[in-house]
Amino acid sequence: MKPARLVVVSNRVGPVRGAAAAGGLAVGLVDALRENGGLWFGWSGRAAPAGRARLHQEVAGGLMLATLDLAQHELDGYYNGFCNSCLWPLLHFRIDLVRFERADFDSYRSVNARYAQALSKLLKREDVVWVHDFHLVPLAEELRQRRVRQRIGFFLHTPFPPTEILTTLPVHESLTRALFAYDLIGFQTPEDLERFRNHVVRACRGRARGDRVSAFGREIRVGAFPIGIDVEQFHRYAFTAPGSREYARMRRVLRGRDQFIGVDRLDYSKGLLRRMDAFGRYLEKHPRSHGQVIMLQVAPVSRGSIESYRDFRQELDREAARVNGRFARFDWTPVHYLNRALPRRTLAGLYRASRVGVVTPMRDGMNLVAMEYVAAQDPADPGVLVLSKFAGASQYLREALLVNPYDGEETAEAMHLAREMRIQERRRRHEALMRHINVHDVGRWRRDFIAALQEAPAWRKSVRKPG
Ligand code: ADP
Ligand code: F6P
């Protein structure tokens, strides 16, 4: 069954064509939406003076884009405040960084209400609405209050934390209740799904049976829908110009040295500090690698007006400088560190030129970089992926070298094993990884989610008693 129109809602929208997009959500959705068109609704990326926030509508790349400006005070309270200083650390198990302010939560609710107000006017009867990520938990509740009865699904791109962590949030019940206004909730991995089911049972006096979860007088459907990438496209990027030119240029610059590559938004959840430390340990333990390896870390600034992100950036600058200060020689700098987003084709060429992909988040919903690195490799002479056990991707990419990023020795040793790995072993692992990412690509993610949403029982106003 094909939806008459897919309406995707996410805080971050686009860019739809070509440009660099740092962040898994935008990348995943552009790929998914390109397949069947539709409407994409969200924030315009602009701060407008209060009272002058407009709705912009345009057609781009075969899609209808509808985006809303937010006022600076809304960005402060909703985006910088509740979303990224409270929910983001909480969802990544970092209670120590959580800053809860009731005023921020109020702003979060009121921005969701404003989104719902604007979106409800654009919806058609036969639409299927797919809402993305933690910025928009209350959106369905707000839409329902505006008599929207279409099917609405929600996909969480981040991890879902254990109930013991979630219940430290003073407004956890309000958020969980809001989730029950959706018809289907999707998670990245079965572990996230299990933690949600457990939370509903333990903290909300609800019930969980198979893919049905009930609480707050409603029964909804739940499932794990692992996000993927457009494998064929990314591989093509690496092997055709301009990606292939970047590859060739990088190889010339490397002059036979081996490159380790990391590509992440500058976010404390990505494990960049520990990664630098592990690279330093690797250099310390393997002096023969001196002059022979380079760590290229591409890390564009993300959420830069938030204090914890600014502090983190300073620490990372220091850590990269520390490793370079300790090991560099006049003709060799071990860490190359860039704070820039790069075009996707350039990235593909750089991944291809790198012997080791280092993806070591402390906690991550899925992690698309891991899959991009695999897709960009030459099957005849592939590089090796070092992957954190705490990325959702580790549940699927079992043939990567899996590490505990809290263990610097283990991560350093994995870097060593990856660099020394024989070609047969590299090929075997790469083939297995490719099998997974080819099957679980972005198209399947979208199709499976939409199919499950269309099969979910339609919204009913009637109260359904749990059990
Ligand atoms: P997150 O959604 O937390 O940022 P993911 O690994 O799932 O993490 O997705 C990140 C996406 O952003 C990937 O598609 C990656 O290629 C892209 N990205 C990350 N860093 C850069 C960069 N420096 N330049 C361009 N794209 C980037
Ligand atoms: O994938 C997780 C996520 O938080 C997305 O929701 C978001 O678009 C992306 O990371 C980048 O973050 P931001 O939109 O805050 O720049």
Give the arrangement of secondary structure elements.
Layout: E1 5-12, H1 24-36, E2 38-48, E3 55-60, E4 63-71, H2 72-91, H3 102-120, E5 127-132, H4 139-145, E6 152-155, H5 163-166, H6 172-179, E7 184-187, H7 190-203, E8 207-209, E9 212-215, E10 218-224, H8 231-239, H9 243-254, E11 258-263, H10 272-285, E12 293-298, H11 307-327, E13 335-338, H12 344-352, E14 356-359, H13 368-375, E15 384-388, E16 401-403, H14 408-420, H15 423-439, H16 442-455
This protein binds adenosine-5'-diphosphate and 6-O-phosphono-beta-D-fructofuranose.
Adenosine-5'-diphosphate binds next to helix 1 and helix 13.
Which short descriptors sum up this protein?
globular; alpha/beta; binds 6-O-phosphono-beta-D-fructofuranose; ten-stranded mixed sheet
